[in-house]
Amino acid sequence: MNLGVDVERGELTDVRDAQAVLAEARQWLADRSIDQWQEPLPDRVIEADVHRGRLFVVREIGGLAGILSIAPSDEETWGPDSVRALYVHRLAVAQRHRGAQLGRNLLRWARTYALELGCVWLRLDCAADNPGLRLFYERAGFTYVRDEFVPSPDGRRFFRVSLYQLAVDGT
Are 92 and 22 in contact (CB under 8 A)? Predict the structure, then answer.
């Protein structure tokens, strides 16, 4: 399943490079006053994704071109749900690949992966005050569901996120 990118399961040796991609994304967002990912993510969160088989990466010489984590549930944000879905987290592309459709290709890959797992939906969330990212997801076929308030990773504050979903079977 190439779909324009070679996606591989991440390894513990990828944590440093994954953090570098996330740091670039965090700076890009901060430069635009977008309140998303402003607190650095502890290594242990990415390490846990690796141990659970949930970190996926696109490699290139000298680092990672893009990353995403996937999960079979996200009750903290979406609430309990009996519908089978795959949840995308931490989708990030290295700045040197911005505009090269890597993010869109990673979403296509995730959709195919969700279909292979027998899921009905591919779901994600983003900062509600990030109109560019919201438009990106909508152009990729995702449908807005609702807004929710979620805690920051350190639990010190709450911020509003917009929830999106895409039917993986194309309907």
Answer: yes
